[in-house]
Amino acid sequence: MDIAAVSREGAVLLGRNFAVDAHAPRPIRIVTHIHADHIVELERSYRESLLVVATEYTMELLEILGHYAPETKRVQMSYNKPIEMMGEIVTLLPARHIVGSAQVMVEGEEYRVGYTSDFKMPGTPPMERLDVLVIDATYGSPRLQRKWSDFEAMAALLSLVEEGLKYGPVEIYAYHGKIQEIMAELRIRKVREPFVTDLRGYKMAKVAERFYEVDLEPLLTRPEEGSSFVSFVHASRFDERRGKAMKILATGWELRAPVVRVKDGVYRVGFSDHATFKEIIEYVQEAMPKKVIVDAYRGTDTRITAKYIEKALNIPAESQPEL
Question: Which of 1, 141, 171, 230 matches a 20 to 30 Å C-alpha distance to 46?
Fold first, then answer.
């Protein structure tokens, strides 16, 4: 049995007992965070797995999204607190991605393996002394490398928001998790105008307040006509033709510049929750595992990532699964 692998169905298999971020016929399912490609066949795991494990924040967010783990199966873990399960030790470690995101490390008597899940740096502590590291590579080649930092993208977003609020409402479109991160960043940077969201977004924001330790003060209803506020909307509802408010789409796939003007009052901001290609290599260089598996189920150009790791760092690497 391989001590680490990625199945064709997207399950990251660690040790003997753990299936992470997709279902597999193993007794314990771990969920690293709430994004759709990491909760694959979750309802099946709720039925068939012995236990379902996640951070407390991820469990809360899953319930807000309508995924209710049976009480008899759910295990909420804190960061950096190992638990022994079925003869192996599992630890959830912080991952800088969205609220509740975690890396996973599993230790047996003769092995130590880990999975980064989605992450970005700085802010994600590399797992060290691993026999096998499974790593995310959403941006898995130099052609996808952003030429600016997250801090520059956030500064550009802040400037847009501040300018737009001078004239009225601003609408920010992003995915779950990224919305709450942007809320927190704007509050930290002293944006005090009201934040407006829907009921689901409101509940998520209340979880994010504890995670980021900042008051987001979300509202469910818009202030009176003519006032300035920031409205947060899921990216799937982005429509540049709707309404007159300034519209900002936050997307990691904008690779031309930190801010791209689509037309008057409509902008794309290159802000991502995933590691750049350079950050992927930096993580591996700091962790120095004996072997690397690049997650091809969720990644892009993962064979390029694996070849680069082998040649630049002299660490055996491969892309899994073969798709």
Answer: 1
